[in-house]
Every structure is written in C-alpha cells, then in structure tokens.
Amino acid sequence: MSYLEEIQVKNLDHLGIVAGLIDEIGIVKIINNKLGIDVREKISAGTVVKSILINGLGFVSRPLYLFSQFFQDKAIEKLLGERIKPDYLNEDKIGRVMDELYKYGLNDIFIEVVLEVIKKFKIDLKYSHLDSTSFHLDGEYKREEDKEKQEEEKIIKERPIFIKKGYSRDHRPDLKQCVLDLITSPDGDIPLFVRVGDENESDKSVFGKVLVEFKKQIKFDSIMVCDSALYGQENLQLIQHLKWITRVPMTIKKAKELVQNIEVEEVKDEDKEKRSDLNLESYTWKEEIVTYGGIKQTWLIVLSEKRQKSDLEKLEKQLSQEEKKSQKFLKEIQSEESEHPQAARYKLKAINKKLRLLEIKEVELIETYSKKKEKIYKMISLIIKKDEEISRKTKEAGKFILATNLGFAEKVSPKFMPLLTKNFLTNQ
Questions:
Q1: Which tens digit of pLDDT belongs to each residue from 124-166?
Q2: What is the mean pLDDT of each run of 10 residues along the chain (428 residues)?
Q3: From which residue to which does any coiled coil extend (predicted)?
Q4: Structural domain contains residue 109
Q5: Between 397 and which of 262, 282, 311, 325 could a Cys-Cys bridge form, CB atoms 3.0 to 4.6 Å apart?
Q6: Both 368 and 273 in a single domain?
C-alpha cells in the first residue's frame, strides 16, 4: 500500500488561534472547576463549552443534532485534545452541559472568565460602556401565554426570558425577539457583563439596575458610559454612588432651555493644542452645574460645527419640501366647499397638523352659494412660516448635552477628551 493512500488532510484554519486563546484564558478549567468532572464521561463539560465556542467562531449555523459534523474534517485532537472524537459531541451531551450551565448561573461563570481576561491581558478599565440591542428569533415561543397566566395567578419566581414582538433594532418586526444588554471595556471592547432580557422591556427601566448589578459583581473603580436611555430620575438615584457619563435627552425641559439660550463658548487657547491632537478642532462646549433628579452634576453643552452644518442643510431641505406640500394643501383648502364655517376650519386644522415649519392661515371665510343655490363657505388663506419653530431648530443645530457626576479634575483630564471623541462626538 502506498504511503500516499494513508495520508489524511485535516483543517485548522483560524480555529487553531481560537482554541489557543481559549486555552490561554483557561475557560475549560474554569468550567470544569464549577461543574465538576465525572470520571465516567468521555468529554468534560469544559471541553464541550470549548467546542461550542470554536463552532460559533467557525461561521457555521446548524441544528444541534448536526453539531458533530462540524468537526469531521477538522484536526479535532489539536483543537480539543487527544482521544476526543466528533461523536462525543452529540446533542444529548451538549444539551446536558447547557442545562448544568444554566442551573449554576451563566452570569457567575461569565464574570469569572471576564476577570481572568482582565488580569491576563491587563485590560484598561478606566471606562465601561453600556448599550443594548435586540435579536430576532424564529419559532412560536408560546411562553408569552405562560407569562400572562403567571401574572393572573400572581406567580413570582425565577424564570427564563419571555420572547415576544417589540421594537426591532435589526428591522424584523415580523419576528419575536429578545434583548441583549452588554457592558464592554474601551480597551479592545472586551465584554465585561452580559444580560439577556424580555423584548418588551425598556432601556430606561433597566439600565440603572444593570449598572448597579455590574458594580456588585465586579469590584473596580470604572466610569460608566451610556447613551440617553440611562438618563432619568430613577436611574440617577440608583447610580448616584457610581461615576457616570451619559447624554441628556432633549425631551427634558431644562435641556431644551439651555440649548436654546446658551451661546457655546470657544475653549481657552491653552486647550486648543489638545483639541487639535485629539481631532476635536470642530467642537466647542460650555459647562453648566445642574441639579436633576436630586443629583448635582455637570452638563457640557457641546457644539459640533460639522453637525451644525448638516442640521442646517437638513432644515433647509425640510423647509423646501414643506413649501411644495403646503402649496398643494393651499389649493385644496381654497377649492373646498363647506356647508358650515366650522367644517372649513376643521379641515384647515387637520392639514396644519401635517406641517412642521409652515402654517396655512385663514384670511377670510366667504359666504356664497353653490350651483344648486345652497349656502356654502369658501376659505381664503395664505402660507406663513413658523418663525419661532424655525428659530428653535436653527439654535439647536449641531448641539447636544453630556451629563456627568465626575469631579472637575477628572472631567477636564486628557483621558476625558478621547472618551468624548469615541463615544459621543464622532457619532454626531
């Protein structure tokens, strides 16, 4: 028999690097320490988890019963260890390991892995960033009915999440979904905390609780960074003992007033060089001390020149579009024959609801007669600009507000400026 006939080719591709990184972090050891090792099992729970991670990063999505096929053409002994065979990775074994992981507590295991990563790779934790997204899922997921039944029977117990329809961030409103809350480090975007929630929950209702739970489980002094979903009176009370930076929603009355009335000042000359180094030449800001939700804090009213130019161009475009639309409405309202004066005014009111920057104003209501000699009313009207609304949008162009409870020294430090650049300013 030729030696060539005995040669077998097995793939590693990028999965060798993935397996090596898993080993360097020590994930298999962590899982085995938590779930234990049964001498009768052919493959440990830690190795099963390693195989799931390798499969997930192998860009393959298959049903669980086809899982072992993924490793048929792979050098499995190099990836998972000697004497490991693809058949060991069957759906029963994987299912049992998943059940054990859930019973033990996925968050506890995840956090232990995170702490090991932080220690081994010396991850910078000056800041931590929180955001959420949603994932659509196929299937019926009838647990929504179970939820309603539990609420009716007032059953309160630990439960999995409820999959249901809600606001779709990935543009699939036809499918049921779940929510993922994720806290990452700015250094390499390393996941620090993961939480899965019901699709119908609001970011505003959970973000404060997520941050508090995160700080309970991971003990380090990190500045929490989040979008405007965090900013609410209840959340600010929850996180008052944490350091945080967030964006202020423009729905808040105080924020509207400041954006309208404050002129954003040019920064001091000594700070211009720093701004240039950090690519912040097109940004200026003004500082205000504000008490909101019972918490004293600093608001930075920021003006982005690039965003201001873009906003003003959009405003001009919107005004031009409304002018064309309002001309059609004007012809429509002036040709309308109404049997009663209030009917004509009701029609005008309905049309004006469709306009934001312009308004069709009644000049005169004429009483006349139709061809059938019936009394009718016709309205003479004209188009006017809503100067107050246009002025408001012009003043708001390019502006947004950041809020923080950081002290002055921390807030103006060089490390704070890249934070603004990465998380807020570059998104404007």
A1: 888 888 988 888 888 777 665 555 555 544 444 456 778 888 7
A2: 65 89 94 90 93 84 80 90 90 92 87 89 87 83 58 51 79 85 85 83 84 81 86 90 90 90 64 58 83 90 90 96 94 89 90 93 89 86 94 92 76 49 46
A3: 302-339
A4: no
A5: 311
A6: yes
Same domain, 284 and 426: yes
What are the Cα distances from residue 66, in Å, to 4, 42, 69, 89, 101? Answer: 31, 19, 6, 10, 21
Domain identity same for 147 and 189: yes
Reported as type and span, the H/E element at residue 368 is strand 358-369
d(CA 1, CA 233) in angstroms, rounded, equals 79
| 259 and 240 within one domain | no
Same domain, 252 and 361: yes
Single out the residue in 247, 274, 289 at which a domain terminates. 247
In this structure, are 226 and 262 located in the same domain?
A: no
Residue 157 and residue 32 share a domain = no
pLDDT in tens, 160-214: 778 888 777 778 888 888 888 999 888 778 888 888 888 777 788 888 888 888 8
Question: Which single residue is written with the structure tokens 């246009």?
Answer: 390
DSSP 8-state class, residue 268: P
| Domain that includes residue 187, residue range | 124-247
Which pLDDT value is given to residue 290?
92
Neighbours of 428 (CB within 10 A): 17
Phi, psi of 384 (to 5 degrees): -130, 155
Report the distance separating Cα 322 and Cα 7, nearest Å. Answer: 73
Residue at 3 is within a domain: no
Half-sphere exposure for 118 (CA within 13 Å, toward CB): 19
Q: Tell me, what's the pLDDT at 414?
A: 46
Domain count, the chain: 3
Provide the pLDDT for residue 155.
42
**Whole-structure pTM value:** 0.74
Cα dihedral value 293, 294, 297, 300, nearest 10:
30
What does the pLDDT read at residue 282? 78
Q: Is residue 294 part of a domain?
A: yes
pLDDT of residue 278: 54
What confidence score (pLDDT) does residue 154 get? 46
Asked if 223 and 126 touch (Cβ cutoff 8 Å), the reply is: yes
Buried b (16+ CB within 10 A) or exposed e, 27-57: bbebbeebbeeeeeeebbbbbbbbbbbbbee
**Same domain assignment for residues 230 and 276:** no
Model pLDDT, residue 50:
95
- Ramachandran region of residue 426, left (φ > 0), alpha (ψ -120 to 50) or beta? alpha
